[in-house]
């Protein structure tokens, strides 16, 4: 089987992760949440890309975790289990915060609490965002700063 995307093209496509900027509320929201909680990224992006985004964007995570560390990608259950192992928390002590309901469903299946933060431009200017109420999600927040407010910080 041949690779439909060559290595040079793949490298160029993946470099987009290094060019991304955080959402407008992320720096303040993460900073506030860190006053009371351990805050970690759990991403399907590569470790170098998440670190580059964090540094460039001023995202002060306590930890950066990626599926790359265990050679799996969300929504595989082992990715969520790895967060427990790496951070030293039981699943019920972790809240997954995401703009993707598929990610939150997998996190909930792993025993995590869940918080949905809609990102209207997540899939582009004409993308559709599912903001419908979902009983399986524990917290709905307008953005990360709102989530911090709801968490009392």
Provide a descriptive summary of the structure in words.
It holds the Pfam family Hydrolase. It comes from Rhizobium aquaticum. This is 2-haloalkanoic acid dehalogenase type II. This protein is of the alpha/beta class. It has one domain (7-150): 3-Layer(aba) Sandwich (Rossmann fold). Helix content is 39%, strand content 12%. The chain contains seven helices and five strands. It has a three-stranded parallel beta sheet with strand order 3-4-5, covered by helices on one side. It has a two-stranded parallel sheet with strand order 1-2. Helix 3 (26-34) packs parallel to helix 7 (144-150). The radius of gyration is 16 Å and the shape is globular. The N and C termini lie far apart (53 Å). The model has no long low-confidence stretch (mean pLDDT 91).
Strand line-up in the sheet with most strands:
3-4-5
Helix count equals: 7
Level-1 CATH class name = Alpha Beta
Averaged pLDDT: 91
CATH topology: Rossmann fold
Strand content: 5-15%
Structural class: alpha/beta
Order of helices and strands: HHHEHEHEHEEH
**DSSP, total strands:** 5
Compute the gyration radius: what is it?
A: 16 Å
Low-confidence stretches: none
At the fourth level of CATH, the homologous superfamily is HAD superfamily/HAD-like
Total number of distinct structural domains: 1
- The end-to-end span amounts to 53 Å
Helix content: 25-40%
| CATH architectural category | 3-Layer(aba) Sandwich
Largest sheet: 3 strands, parallel
Give the overall form. Answer: globular
């Amino acid at each position: 089987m041949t690779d439909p995307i060559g290595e040079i093209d793949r490298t160029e496509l993946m470099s987009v992760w290094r060019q991304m900027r955080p959402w407008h509320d992320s720096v303040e929201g993460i900073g506030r949440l860190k006053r009371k909680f351990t805050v970690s990224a759990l991403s399907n992006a590569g470790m170098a890309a998440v670190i580059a985004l964090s540094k460039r964007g001023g995202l002060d995570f306590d930890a950066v975790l990626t599926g790359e560390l265990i050679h799996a990608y969300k929504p595989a259950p082992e990715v969520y289990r790895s967060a427990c192992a790496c951070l030293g928390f039981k699943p019920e002590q972790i809240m997954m915060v995401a703009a993707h309901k598929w990610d939150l469903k997998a996190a909930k299946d792993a025993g995590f609490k869940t918080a949905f933060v809609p990102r209207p431009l997540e899939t582009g200017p004409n993308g559709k965002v599912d903001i419908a109420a979902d009983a399986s999600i524990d917290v709905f927040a307008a953005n990360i700063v709102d989530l911090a407010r709801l968490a009392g910080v």
